Each structure stands twice: as structure tokens, then as C-alpha cells.
Amino acid sequence: MAFVVRSGRLAGPLRNYLRPIAIGNRCISTSKKKDETAVVTEKIPSHKVTHDIDVAAASARKKWMTYGFTTQDETEDVALAHLFSLFGITLCIVIGSLAYMYGPDHALRDWSQREAYLLVREREAKGLPLLDPNYVDESTVVLPSEEDLGAYEIII
């Protein structure tokens, strides 16, 4: 989420680089093209049409490049490639991100909150207040004298 916010801040400076230079220019040629018509002078034979389709289909089969799953059957190779791509994306990205998000806290980011809950349960079980008003013993606290403070105002 932080990346989306940071990328939004970069949109302003990058806008000038991504904008085309000539926005208002329209390059339209209005010249008359009387002499630029294409004419086919050869006759197209009509009896070779089915033979040409068969040759094109055979050449397409010869040009097949395998994905590496099988070298005998093109449809099986393509199906396996798509299947492995689907499962690879599903397992790696979706399930991997779910395991990362809902997995244990290895970096101990939430340690303080868990420790606080444990201390609250412990104090409630013993019947103690959640926060002790005398957390630090008053006899161990050393405060400066009135002479050391001088003219400083003390705000409590």
C-alpha cells in the first residue's frame, strides 16, 4: 500500500516525461492520390486453393516449437504448458502470499503487543491493578533540590 502512495507522489514529475511532445499537431495529408492505385496484373489460379491450404497447414505443423513438456503432441504440450503456468502462478503468488501474510511473526514485530496481553492476564489472575501507581520505589528517585532548580518554573 505504501508503494501505491509513493508512486502517486511521483506521478506529477513524471507526467511531463510521459506526455507526447506534439499534442495539438495533426499530420493529415490532403493531397489527391490519383496515381497511387495498386493494380494486380497476374491471374490468380483457382484450382490450387485447396492444395495451398493443405501446404500452409503442413508448414504450420512443421514450425511448431515445443514448450518442453512433450515433443510428440502439440496439443498436449500446449495444454501442459498452460496447466503448469496456471498452477505455478496460483501456488507461488496466491498461496505464497497467503502463507507470508498469515504465517508466524519471524521478525517479532508484534512482540510488544503479545507481551502486554500476557502481563495483563497475569496481573488480572493475581488480582493486582493493571498499572501499579508506585511503579518505581520513591526512595530510589533522586530529585534536585530547590537551590539547584533556581528560577526554573516547575510545571506538573
UniProtKB/TrEMBL annotation:
Alphabetized InterPro entries for the sequence: NADH_UbQ_OxRdtase_ESSS_su
Segments forming a coiled coil: none
Localization, UniProt: Mitochondrion inner membrane
Keywords assigned: Electron transport, Membrane, Mitochondrion, Mitochondrion inner membrane, Respiratory chain, Transit peptide, Transmembrane, Transmembrane helix, Transport
GO cellular component term of the entry, any: respiratory chain complex I
TM regions (residue ranges): 79-102
Pfam families: ESSS
Membrane topology: Single-pass membrane protein
Main location: mitochondrion
Quaternary assembly: Complex I is composed of 45 different subunits. Interacts with BCAP31.
Sequence similarity: Belongs to the complex I NDUFB11 subunit family.
Role description: Accessory subunit of the mitochondrial membrane respiratory chain NADH dehydrogenase (Complex I), that is believed not to be involved in catalysis. Complex I functions in the transfer of electrons from NADH to the respiratory chain. The immediate electron acceptor for the enzyme is believed to be ubiquinone.
Protein name, UniProt field: NADH dehydrogenase [ubiquinone] 1 beta subcomplex subunit 11, mitochondrial
Annotated organism of origin: Daphnia pulex
